[in-house]
User: Fold Glutamyl-tRNA reductase from Actinoplanes awajinensis subsp. mycoplanecinus.
Amino acid sequence: MNLLSIGASYRTADVAVLERLTIPEAQVPEMLQKLVAQPYVNEAVLVATCNRVEVYASVTGFHGGLGDICNVFAQHSGIPATDLAGHLYVHYGEAAVRHSFRVSAGLDSMVVGEAQILGQLRDAYHSATEADSAGRLLHELMQQTLRVGKRAHSETGIDKAGQSVVSAALEVAAEHLGGDLTGRPALVIGAGAMGSLSVATLTRTGVGPLRITNRSAERADRLAEAYGAVAVPFDDLATALSEVDIVVTATASTTPVLTRERLTAALAARTSVTPLVVLDLAVPRDVAPEAAGLPGLAVIDIDTLAASRRALPAVAETAAVEQIVAGEVDNFLGWMRGAEIAPTVAALRNRAEDVVSAEMRKLLTRHPEFSEEQRADVSRTLHRVVQQILHSPTVRVRQLAAEPGGDQYATLLRELFDLDVPHATHADAVPEIGGRA
Assistant:
């Protein structure tokens, strides 16, 4: 099973690296085409979120696939492959399946158990389907990944500890604002998926009055109406910043939205004695790095949250999800082993058909007196005999192949019958590898 997963997340890379790796939604189709154009990559799904960028790929060889994907990452980010390697995790074969299922269940999220990753995985799968970069293996993997994630959330309490990165960020913000955020005026910059999630979480927490601004006024208006907030024109951002205690910024901008100059002006205009707390949940960052350290400003970004390790669920809840993941990994591996032996079984049947056809030609050469009816009768008889002989062994080998260690049966069949099965060689394969997750 040449399934490879390579990526970087808040666990292995800081925001500066993630910013360079991040892939805007509009560029995802182009990146997918670059990936499947590589010599060792057959299929690819690209997951790009605020704190992870990873590729799931079907490759013809481990080392070749690893090199191809790393080179695409390096070209996109401008980080030399040798430097980038230290920030990447790598999973191969069974480990890649397990990683995919753990991600969908929320076990690999910054806030363990958050459900937002399911929507992000669904979007990634949709993009791969639209770009025609997912084949049989990744279609099956992503469908099962989404199902496992839904099962984990519906059957366990994994999401009780925190619904999103936003809730964890608010816990840190509360430490800067006396511990209670109820009634604190807030501003959300951005009306996309993360902005919407932020508005919902702030409303549930009791933060308010709440204002929303976005470059597209229409989206801000719709979101504000849905939650009883106030939409603020983006041109009035400076004024809004000076009148709130909490700012959540989560835009898709490739350049800082909150520059040092803009924040300096807002801080000078504030009358509150409490600090202005900015939750920067965007990657690339919305807050300019040089703004850090301004008097009266507290910036909480992805790096801050990664260091805080907030909202970890109870051990029992995590263990329950891990048990679900383990069982589902076994099921998927059984499917994979069965799928891998199918081409070998088909090649064996084709070989038998070729032998029958060759013998029929010899027989008819020796007996030209056979009528068309006799020829057809002999041909049908030979084919039935071969099919009956092959039926039980091929059914049984499929069953055996689905069991642990079953991959050996396909190899044995190929060797015993000298079968030429495309993509059946694994000369470049390596034992299961699990990177830093």
Notes: The beta strands are 3-9, 41-49, 52-59, 89-92, 186-189, 210-213, 230-232, 246-249, 276-280, 297-300. The CA atoms of residues 6 and 66 lie 8 Å apart. The chain has three domains: 3-161, 165-308, 341-417.
